[in-house]
């Protein structure tokens, strides 16, 4: 997403080769129109997945999950880092370590808001170590819902997050992929260009259709005649 890359170059603050601050426009002060465009981009990328719910974790992913939910016309829900007294015991929970804060949280979602019939898109601001996203993926698995993919605003490709998700066969789409960075410099990659994801069900339907066509051809009278001719009958 060129607009996002341009904003990172212009307004992002690179504190080290692993730490990027984008709090001027993404996750403290938020450029709302940019957030809306990010939501639309996620909706476009996952348009074929029949998503029923967008999931994120508080707090920095909320604005992007909401924007994606609006674009997809579905609800969004966020995992809470501290259990409220109003939540009760009926929750899905997972432990998540925060790289930037150096803390581990027990995040939770009330079971009423994540059902087995849901098709879930996870959205977050950063993909780095992948800990938060793996925790959310565990919650989706526990609920019995279907995880259709993960959408991240910014990915640090030099950290292990994508690998952890791909090991679980979770599709990942990131809007700005950083190859390397240092104070005063950031390099993006255009490799693996963003393409709309084809739902697994669609691929399965295609395979089934191909098998049906093969079976029809093999069982047709014309094919039987050709087989007899070839066998010299």
Supply the key terms.
233 residues, 7 helices, alpha/beta, two-stranded antiparallel ribbon
User: N-to-C SSE series?
Assistant: HEEHEHEEEEHEHEEHH
| Mass-distribution shape | globular
Class per helix and strand makeup? alpha/beta
Strand fraction band? 25-35%
How many whole angstroms does the radius of gyration measure?
Answer: 22 Å
Q: What summary fits the major beta sheet?
A: 6 strands, mixed
Describe this structure in words.
This protein is an alpha/beta fold and 233 residues long. Helices cover 36% and strands 27% of the residues. It is built from 7 helices and 10 strands. α2 packs across α3.
Can you describe this structure in just a few lines?
The protein has 233 residues and is α/β, with parallel strands linked by helices. The chain contains 7 helices and 10 strands.
SSE layout:
Blueprint (H helix, E strand, L loop, with lengths): L1 H10 L1 E2 L5 E2 L10 H14 L7 E5 L4 H11 L3 E4 L11 E8 L4 E8 L8 E9 L3 H13 L2 E11 L4 H7 L4 E11 L2 E4 L11 H20 L1 H10 L3
Parallel strand pairs: 3-4, 3-7, 7-8, 8-9
Antiparallel strand pairs: 1-2, 5-6, 9-10
């Amino acid at each position: 997403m060129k607009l996002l890359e341009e904003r990172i170059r212009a307004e992002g603050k690179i504190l080290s080769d692993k730490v990027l601050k984008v709090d001027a426009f993404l996750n403290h002060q938020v450029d709302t129109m940019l957030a809306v465009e990010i939501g639309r981009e996620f909706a476009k990328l996952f348009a074929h997945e029949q998503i029923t719910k967008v999931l994120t974790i508080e707090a920095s992913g909320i604005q992007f999950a909401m924007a994606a939910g609006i674009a997809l016309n579905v609800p969004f829900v966020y995992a809470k880092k501290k259990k409220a007294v109003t939540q009760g015991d009926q929750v899905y929970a997972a432990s998540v370590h925060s790289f930037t804060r150096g803390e581990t949280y027990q995040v939770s979602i009330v079971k009423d808001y994540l059902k087995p019939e849901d098709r879930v898109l996870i959205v977050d601001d950063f993909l780095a170590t992948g800990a938060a996203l793996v925790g959310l993926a565990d919650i989706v698995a526990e609920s019995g819902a279907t995880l259709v993919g993960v959408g991240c605003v910014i990915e640090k490709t030099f950290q292990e997050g994508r690998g952890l998700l791909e090991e679980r066969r979770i599709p990942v789409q990131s809007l700005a992929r950083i190859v390397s960075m240092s104070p005063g410099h950031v390099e993006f990659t255009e490799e693996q260009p963003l393409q709309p994801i084809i739902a697994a069900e669609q691929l399965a339907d295609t395979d089934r259709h191909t098998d049906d066509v093969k079976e029809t051809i093999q069982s047709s009278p014309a094919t039987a005649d050709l087989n007899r001719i070839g066998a010299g009958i």
